[in-house]
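To whoever is on call:

I kicked off a structure prediction for a single chain this morning and the downstream step that reads the tokens threw a length-mismatch warning. I double-checked the sequence; it's 261 residues and nothing unusual in it as far as I can see. Pasting both halves so you can look.
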Amino acid sequence: MLLDLNDKTIVVTGCSSGIGAATAQNLLRCGASVIGVDRNESDNVDTFYQCDLSDPLAIDELVARLPGEIDGLANIAGVPPTMSAEVVLKVNLLGLQRLTLGLIGKMADNASIVNLGSLAAFRWMKSVDVIKASYDLTFDNVQAFISEHGIDQQTGRSYFFSKEALVAWTFKNRWTWRDRGIRMNAVSPGAVDTPILADFLSSLGARADEDRKTMDRPATPEDIAPVVAFLMTDNAAWFQGANLTLDGGMSSHMLAGMFNL
């Protein structure tokens, strides 16, 4: 049964491929009016805006061009750990935050924000000090931050940290806009069969191979999209600051192993 998103206008970043494309298509089937944002052009949305989310000026221009009364924002766009650490942090964290905060004033009351986290953020608690240090992270000091905290590209740490900080940011903003009913949640998939899966696996090496042996299969974008759509509905209003693990049981498997359950 399709969810009812009639009369809702929802912005989807990363709409041209992978989870973003599947999310946009699912929202359209549910009756939403979908505004797509991506660096690459797309024709699978009602209205499309081209934007490089690693560029703060481009983000500000996008915010100025987007209409008001937005009912939802699906922050799906992201880059893999094979990209430079600077680009990973700019797109996966800083760009997402800048766009979200810029759009708050254009959002309708009771709007929903959904951030695409990751199973890579599973151990975010071990990074709390660096996450708190990232509160002062800007587009101008990102390289210094990377050097100071050893967030290198070679181990995929940049990707892991970007998702850890994003999930923590979701928790932090559980009630930030409660006076207007605007809620923020995250969806954290495990491995998903998208165009960046090969890049992700090549960065993680043996760890990823072991996880793949444990799982029946990677997720598909179509496994993730309906959960994002659900969080956009009024039925999900009591989810505030939640991180929904959508990983085929992998996080439960990891927890069970940690506590010998």
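Update from on-call: the warning came from a stale cache, not from the record. Cleared it. Sanity check on the structure: The mean pLDDT is 93.
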